[in-house]
Design a protein that fits this description.
mainly alpha, Methane Monooxygenase Hydroxylase, Chain G, domain 1, structural constituent of ribosome, RNA-binding, Ribosomal_bS20, ribosomal protein, rRNA-binding
Length: about 90
């Protein structure tokens, strides 16, 4: 445990931020998981809606600085690649 006043305060701030960031990071993970499940199920309308929700969650997390913007872009790219494969199978 820190015994310097500024470090004690910094620890309190870090804990608050960690809890706040956890919400957005967890939501992004959840929506990505749901989108992947929807893509696997093969239901086009359900998959499209789930992918849009996942993209929105990733954008929000990147906007708030919780994940890096390139990390969000990479995850969205992978998700869209899976969705595109579902579209090509459907066509």
């Amino acid at each position: 445990m820190a015994n310097i006043k500024s470090q004690i305060k910094r620890n309190r701030q870090n804990e608050k931020r960690r809890l706040r960031n956890r919400v957005y990071r967890g939501a992004a993970r959840t929506f990505i998981r749901k989108a992947n499940a929807a893509i696997e199920s093969g239901n086009l309308d359900e998959a499209r809606a789930a992918v849009l929700r996942a993209q929105k969650a990733l954008d929000k997390a990147a906007e708030k600085g919780i994940i890096h913007k390139n990390n969000a872009a990479r995850r969205k790219s992978r998700l869209m690649k899976r969705f595109a494969s579902l579209l090509s199978k459907a066509a």
